[in-house]
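Thread amino acids onto this structure.
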C-alpha cells in the first residue's frame, strides 16, 4: 500500500497524454487520529484535474503518526507541495 505518496499511477490518462508536469500546493488538516482531511489548494498547478486529484487522494490515502501536546494526540495543519512528474 502506498501511503502519503502521489505517483505517476495517480495521473489521469488525459494528463499523461498531455504531458502535464506541474506543482500543486495544498493545505490539509491532520486529525488527532492521524487521518488527513480538509484538503484545499493553496496554489493551483494550472491544471484543475491534477489539483482535484491531489485533494481526492490525500484524505483517502494519507495517514500520519499524530502530533502530540502534553502527551496527548492533537490535530495539526500541513501545507505541502505536490509535484506531478512523469518519469521516463
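Threaded sequence (88 positions):
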Amino acid at each position: 500500500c502506498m501511503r502519503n505518496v502521489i505517483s505517476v499511477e495517480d495521473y489521469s490518462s488525459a494528463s499523461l497524454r498531455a504531458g502535464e508536469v506541474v506543482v500543486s500546493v495544498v493545505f490539509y488538516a491532520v486529525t488527532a487520529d492521524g487521518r488527513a482531511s480538509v484538503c484545499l489548494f493553496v496554489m493551483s498547478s494550472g491544471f484543475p484535474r491534477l489539483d482535484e486529484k491531489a485533494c481526492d487522494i490525500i484524505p483517502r490515502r494519507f495517514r500520519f503518526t499524530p502530533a502530540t501536546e502534553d502527551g496527548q494526540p492533537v490535530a495539526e495543519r500541513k501545507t505541502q507541495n505536490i509535484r506531478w512528474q512523469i518519469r521516463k
